[in-house]
From TrEMBL:
Family designation: Belongs to the DEAD box helicase family. DDX52/ROK1 subfamily.
Protein name: Probable ATP-dependent RNA helicase DDX52
Cellular compartment(s): Nucleus, Nucleolus
UniProt lineage: Eukaryota, Metazoa, Ecdysozoa, Arthropoda, Hexapoda
Domain spans labelled Helicase ATP-binding: 60-237
């Protein structure tokens, strides 16, 4: 325990909660300790990721051990792979029908996350998709794509719009993990935006029985409060300064 604390300190990681999984020493531990396929770890190395970043060291083991987290780490510190790696591993073989869902505030960000998901899932057969424009003529197509996907990335608006269609054949029952990226932006807009987002979150969470993980660059009191009340067994992870 002492040694773990020392290791976390060295990497600027602060973790608060019960029975916190040990931080990763290196990506190889994913193979030896968590049974992640060698080919998936090799993809990381091919991407030029030789060492996990601090947030990856602590968030990856938490998600792999099914722990709900609120993670706060600076921009550019590798948060995307910190949630995509464990999600892609946990999805295992493709089944079709979303089992993991990533929500983020903008289309641009959704596209970036999608590109990283395509890169990191290269060694798997999994299908990842991002919900694009919702022109009336495209709705059927979008639904069909989602039904075939294992991992879906979207803004809350687009997903909720799709879920509200009368025709929907989208089933969210199988979603096991919901990740909210740049959660600070979604929890800290105008009052109206925040209310809308929370309603959307309720809709999504009530249509699936998923675990939740939130990532952001700033510490946000409204997230901390919401998480304390809504996330069982929560672990709070902070890397670097609390820049809020
Ligand atoms: P954040 O979401 O925290 O702002 P990103 O996930 O966008 O950060 O990652 C920032 C950059 O760091 C990206 O170019 C990504 O490819 C790269 N990156 C992620 N993880 C690692 C790693 N372990 N080693 C080296 N580069 C990494
Ligand atoms: Mg990011």
């Amino acid at each position: 325990l002492e040694e773990q604390n020392h290791f976390r300190n060295e990497h600027g990681i602060k973790a608060v909660g019960r029975h916190i999984p040990n931080a990763l020493r290196d990506f190889n531990e994913l193979i030896t300790k968590y049974n992640i396929s060698r080919s998936m770890v090799e993809v990381l190395l091919q991407c030029g990721y030789s060492e996990p970043t601090p947030i990856q060291r602590q968030a990856i083991p938490c998600l792999l051990e099914n722990r709900q987290i609120v993670a706060c780490a600076p921009t550019g510190s590798g948060k995307t792979a910190a949630f995509l790696m464990p999600l892609l591993h946990m999805l295992g073989a493709p089944q079709g029908g979303p089992r993991a869902l990533v929500l983020c505030p903008t289309r641009e960000l959704a596209n970036q996350i999608y590109r990283e998901a395509i890169r990191l899932s290269a060694s798997t057969q999994l299908r990842c998709s991002v919900i694009r424009s919702l022109k009336e003529s495209k709705i059927k197509e979008r639904e069909a794509t989602i039904r075939k996907s294992d991992l879906v990335i979207s803004t809350p608006n687009r997903l909720c719009y799709l879920l509200k269609q009368d025709t929907v054949g989208i089933n969210m029952d199988k979603v096991q993990w919901l990740v909210i990226d740049e959660a600070d932006k979604l929890f800290e807009g105008s009052q109206e935006e925040v209310d809308t987002f929370r309603q959307q979150l309720d809709v999504i969470l009530s249509s699936c029985k998923s675990r939740l993980a939130m990532f952001s660059a700033t510490h946000t009191p409204s997230i901390a409060k919401w998480a304390r009340h809504n996330m069982r067994g929560l672990i709070n992870i902070t890397v670097g300064h609390r820049n809020a």
